[in-house]
């Protein structure tokens, strides 16, 4: 009985500090509507919990907005609950709206690879499953080449050929439920945000201070 209780406590603890451990749809205020500018472009990435990834890209100079969602699979109209099963084929992903005059797609790819471990199969600690896998999406042949060049260089210089990131053509991006948008910003005291998301963001900021927005 003690063993069973210990396992239950451990399971609850993991759930509380996982990206899938929060489903209170009433948490936070409604996100203001974002309207892209005429010359805005969009890039798409998946690298673990989208709460973390969204916050990282929104800290980058030239990024106008980052939207959490789902991409990479074939299931129609995926939801957070369906994604959590790991059987939809989709990953938690982020659509990054950016001004190409201020930040290039190549720099966004640098942000992507520099803010997670691309050698981890199906996950980023503490979140594991196909829905948390690493994917760099492309819409054009040029974007695909930029991603592949980055992988080749990193495999040679840093990761010794161990990168498992998928390079995948974007077929469709599904925006996630409203309560996921700007989650870290709107829920600073949530357990996962404090334990995982904020530390991940701070590690990125320390690594790439030259890419950050001027907050003054």
TrEMBL record:
Active-site residues, as the UniProt record annotates them: 49
Family: Belongs to the MsrA Met sulfoxide reductase family.
Key word Transport present: no
Gene name in the database record: msrA
Top EC group: oxidoreductase
Top-level taxonomy: Bacteria, Pseudomonadati, Bacteroidota, Flavobacteriia, Flavobacteriales
The name this protein goes by in its record: Peptide methionine sulfoxide reductase MsrA
Reactions it catalyzes: L-methionyl-[protein] + [thioredoxin]-disulfide + H2O = L-methionyl-(S)-S-oxide-[protein] + [thioredoxin]-dithiol; [thioredoxin]-disulfide + L-methionine + H2O = L-methionine (S)-S-oxide + [thioredoxin]-dithiol
Gene3D superfamilies: Peptide methionine sulphoxide reductase MsrA
NCBIfam families: msrA (TIGR00401)
Function: Has an important function as a repair enzyme for proteins that have been inactivated by oxidation. Catalyzes the reversible oxidation-reduction of methionine sulfoxide in proteins to methionine.
Organism: Polaribacter aestuariivivens
Entries under SUPFAM superfamilies matching the protein: Peptide methionine sulfoxide reductase
Peptide methionine sulphoxide reductase MsrA domain ranges (all copies): 43-192
PANTHER family from the UniProt entry: PEPTIDE METHIONINE SULFOXIDE REDUCTASE (PTHR43774), PEPTIDE METHIONINE SULFOXIDE REDUCTASE MSRA 2 (PTHR43774:SF1)
This protein's UniProt keywords: Oxidoreductase, Signal
Domain of life: Bacteria
HAMAP family: MsrA
Residues in the signal sequence: 1-25
The protein's Enzyme Commission number: 1.8.4.11
